[in-house]
Amino acid sequence: MKLKQLATGVAALLLAGCVSYDGRGLVPGQSTARDVEALMGVPADRRTDANGDTVLYFPRGPLGLHTYAARIAPGGVLKSIEQLLTVENLTKLSPGVTTADQLREHFGPPRMVSRLERQQRDVWEYYMYGWEPEPHFLYVQLSYDGIVREVLLLKDYKNELGHGKD
Predict the structure, then answer these.
(1) Counting CB atoms within 10 angstroms of each CB, which of 108, 114, 147, 163 has the fewest?
(2) Mind listing the domains of the chain with CATH numbers?
(3) What stretches in the chain show pLDDT beneath 50?
(4) Strand ranges inside the chain, DSSP E
């Protein structure tokens, strides 16, 4: 039985080695949606925007600091691929204005969602680099009507002390 588990584990590692972390090798205007999924794996989420483009989301977690979005034109050809978990995208969040759909568009699917019943809020958690090139937790609180109410970017001090490292 242990030999079968070992073989399954080795096969999974080999298969994972075939998946591209960031889409390197894909060519906008030339690669197809099928090429994207063959190279990057199954997307965690897919959405269609107002222009008819399909956006495929590839979070690299749970401790990964990146989420990639591949934008596919209606004809099935890759338009672009970008890393979403950036400080630049933080500037696009505006409490009282930004919606849950806009948050997902800018950051992709959250790593975890928690509910604060007393405050009537949902908290979406992301793990990303902050202004310093060190890991941070991003917590975005949304009221039950789907509007961003608070944005918190907190340094991962556990990681700094070496406790979060393998």
Answers:
(1) 163
(2) 1-83 (3.30.1450.10), 84-166 (3.30.1450)
(3) 1, 3, 6-17, 166
(4) 45-48, 54-60, 66-72, 78-83, 112-116, 121-129, 135-143, 148-155
Which pLDDT belongs to residue 61?
75
67-95 pLDDT tens trace: 999 999 999 999 999 999 999 999 999 99
CA dist., res. 150 & res. 37, Å (int): 34
Looking at the DSSP bridge assignments, the partners of residue 83 are: 68
- Only one residue has tokens 């202004």, namely 131
Instruction: Provide the whole-model pTM.
Output: 0.80
pLDDT at 64: 77
d(CA 69, CA 57) in angstroms, rounded, equals 5
d(CA 15, CA 17): 5
Residue partners of 12: CB distance under 8 A and separation at least 6: none
3-class DSSP state for residue 93? coil
SS (H, E, C) 99-137: EHHHHHHHHCCCCEEEEECCCCEEEEEEEEECCCCCEEE
* Contact between residue 30 and residue 79 where contact means Cβ atoms under 8 Å apart: no
